[in-house]
Amino acid sequence: MPAIGVAQNPEVGLAVQNDDAIVVPQQRGKLLLAVMILLCLSAGLVLLGLGVGSNGWESLASMWQQSLAMQIVWDIRLPRTLGAWAAGALLGLSGAVAQGLFRNPLADPYLLGSASGAALGVSTALVLFGGSPFATAWVVRMGLTGAAFAGAVLAVFLTLLLARGVQHSLRLLLAGVIVGVVLGAIGSLVTMLRPDIVQSMQAFMLGSSGYVGWSGCGLMLVVWLICLVISVALSQVLDGLSLGEATAASLGLPLAQMRLALVVMIALSAGTAVAQTGLIVFVGLAAPHLVRSVLKTTHAGLIMLSSLAGGVLLSAADILSRWMIAPQELPVGVVTAILGGAYLLRLMHKQRRYSEHV
Question: Where is the chain membrane-spanning (predicted)?
Fold first, then answer.
């Protein structure tokens, strides 16, 4: 009997041996090229962001000789620009994990109720402490940031409690919707009872990277690196789930524990981003779609590329929000909603045209 060899399809660049998919050098090369392109775009956007301020675009070369201008760049623009990239990377990562975990391309980082929980935490903190969600006083700022993160974590905990664990994806999905609706209603009630916090809550709901300092930027980058490493390490369970529950269970993986760890990654990454920048929509939803439209890869590659793409998208949106109507500034959440909505509408139209021709 002849030995079973390696079957290779040169068109897709995949080799199969003992029923395990192995990415061959052609596919690794495409993945590496995509990573390098996104890193170069990220670096270019960071440099571009350093020159965009309240007066529009300013040349870094002309600012180099001015000590006050360079202090503004170092203390305000650089942490803000890096913070916007880090928040986008966290949202892109959590969006890719959520879509893989729920096997739903419409899943986003806020699906487990973290957005409504964060908003409730901020509204409660505003009632207790007063002030703006982006106040410069570090005591108030850290209190509101902590409240937003605590609210997001509480919402995910309630979702897990209502779903009775992570064994059933559909139950977890429905529990997240219920928790989000209930906590959102409570947050709206708190805001209605205290009209003085309406403007502050509106600023939080629209999102902004304008008050991200070095501490917040460093925190997001550290959390992003931790979540990226753990999510990529657990990506095999997402590959298994994409083939069905029975197939994933037959692989011998501890599905319950790995699902719980992935839910924690979604909550940690989304909660950290929301706590620092407010609610920024469409980045976590659009980034994985953008990656899939360009490159087909495993969930490990998808998570990495979606994270980098999320950073690029939010960095570009942050620069546009500062530059379009300078010296005024658009909420970055409005820009991401417009750009993300336009992209998803284009994608939907393209898929409909494709289905009509098939």
Answer: 31-53, 82-102, 109-130, 142-163, 170-191, 211-234, 246-267, 273-291, 303-324, 330-348
Separation of alpha carbons 250 and 264, rounded Å: 24
pLDDT tens-place string over residues 185-207: 999 999 888 888 888 888 888 88
In a domain, 222, yes or no: yes
Say how many domains are in the chain.
1
Sign of the alpha-carbon dihedral angle for 299, 28, 42, 231: positive
User: Tokens standing for 203?
Assistant: 């600023």
Tell me how far apart the alpha carbons of residues 251 and 154 are, in angstroms, rounded to a whole number.
Answer: 32
Given a contact cutoff of 8 angstroms between Cβ atoms, the answer to whether 212 and 83 are in contact is yes
Q: What is the pTM of this model?
A: 0.84
Give the model confidence (pLDDT) of 49-73 as tens digits. 887 876 767 766 666 767 777 788 8
Give the range of the structural domain holding residue 322, as residue numbers without chain letter.
26-357
CATH number, domain with residue 132: 1.10.3470.10
d(CA 300, CA 102): 16
